[in-house]
# Entry
Amino acid sequence: MFQHVEPYPGDPILSLNEAFQKDPRPQRINLSIGIYFDDAGRIPMLPSVREAERRVVEAAGARPYLPMEGAANMRSAVQDLLFGAGHPALAAGRVATIQSVGSSGGLKVGADFIKRWFPDSAVYLSDPTWDNHRAVFEGAFLECRSYPYYDATTGGLRFDAMCEALRAAPERSVVLLHACCHNPTGVDLTPAQWRELVPVLRERRLIPFLDLAYQGYGDGIEEDAQAVRLLADEGLGFFVANSFSKSMSLYGERCGALSVVCPDAAQAERVLGQLKFTIRRNYSNPPLHGGQLVARVLGDADLRAMWQAEVDGMRQRIQAMRQALHAVLSAKRPGRDFGYFLTQRGMFSYTGLSPAQVDRLKDEFGVYLVRSGRMCVAGLNTGNVEATANAMAAVLG
Ligand code: LMR
# Structure
């Protein structure tokens, strides 16, 4: 009956993480999946989230279905977080927000919506991008194209080529942009480049779709929302999917949201209605618990301040690990420039290692990176950074 079903080749990130879990070598090091581990190599339970959970559990009663669009307190907390409380777009009721199953769920609901209402639009993805972006949009039967982004020779951004490609894109094309902490390269647009991009988006009547999965890991919670606020200030219509997996260390709770900024409140209401329809056809309504943790943390001034300090701490620890890795590698390979570890931002660095070198790292040293050469620097700690640098130096030859 199922003989015609083809074998699944696996996912470049999640299947690698599964392989890591099965690796019996005690010294193995997981720098593959985008998860923040603390200095003891554990996924942290943030004290702000723990306290929020205590309160949520204490107050818990019956578990009704949430509305299709999710919990009202979570959705409005997300809007304030992304746009800043009282932003004119919020005051005007121009933003339609749904609680989603992680930001992947927000991307998927957005992709289905785009396929229904902008069926001829292609989706432009950065070259490279998160492996699953293409899968999500192609899974919604949208055509995916790419725009130049990462410059392998300089380790920087091909901003002019990116703008040129977007200027040549057909009107109403969707442009997927990483709002901060680009995955996989760690190379972001500067604030000035974001401002330069706005007229390109406007003139070509492009549809920006921001992915904000790493809020707080770049420069800070507020700072990392700047691209969202800029596009909203400029009066553009756009989509933004955001996640609390990383920022609240709530990976398995699958907490995220999708917001669509519309020209006016009447359109936002229609968009929200169609997003609800999309959700109903997919999974009916989102789960309750994780979203309530998010709403509690964001809705209580003390927990919100605690959370901000915790995110600052995680970001600073990653920066310290970047410096440590850079220092050991520069000492071991004095002729090479490892400056990219210091300039790239967020959880990831693009090491430039070839797939063969990445395979050697895994097979000979038990150090797991994604085969593209992406390293999750948030998996480094004081106990494994030296071994990682030694292994890298060895495969670099
Ligand atoms: C990653 O890029 O490693 C994370 O976003 C996890 C995932 O789902 O791929």
